[in-house]
Specification:
130 residues; mainly beta; six-stranded antiparallel β-sheet; two-stranded antiparallel sheet; 1 helix; 8% helix; globular
């Protein structure tokens, strides 16, 4: 049986690791890095009226201007690309997302009615096989 230190309670039995430490959900506004890579996940409360929380993942899509997008991972709309982000979302000419841009533009581009202080962030899913 898995204990609390071996899995993320929000993801049930999925073991999530960041070498060598176990990844934990953090408050997005407290995330200390200047950039966010594809594969990072947001946990947004009351994103849709009929869902307590919705998880979205940053992905690279085939858009020409800016390939950064968010796809819905949970609920009835899972698998749908929610938004294609603008080129201004890039961090200093790289192909990763600017944390500052996301924090500044969260309500405009992602979820207009969400309190940013309630949004959780997971850097990346890294699965470790037994």
């Amino acid at each position: 049986m898995l204990n609390e230190k071996e899995y993320d309670l929000n993801m049930k039995l999925t073991k999530v690791f960041k070498d060598p430490q176990i990844i934990r959900w953090v408050d997005l506004y407290m995330y200390g890095e200047e950039y966010i890579c594809r594969g990072a996940v947001l946990d947004i409360p009351n994103f849709f009226a009929d869902e307590k929380c919705t998880k979205l993942m940053f992905i690279e899509s085939s858009q020409e201007d800016c390939s950064l997008s968010l796809v819905i991972l949970t609920g009835k709309k899972a698998g749908i690309i929610w938004v294609h982000l603008p080129i201004e979302a890039y961090y200093d000419g790289t192909r990763v997302l600017s944390t500052k841009w996301i924090l500044t533009n969260f309500n405009k581009w992602i979820s207009p009615n969400t309190d940013l202080k309630k949004v959780k962030f997971l850097y990346n899913f890294i699965y470790k096989e037994k």
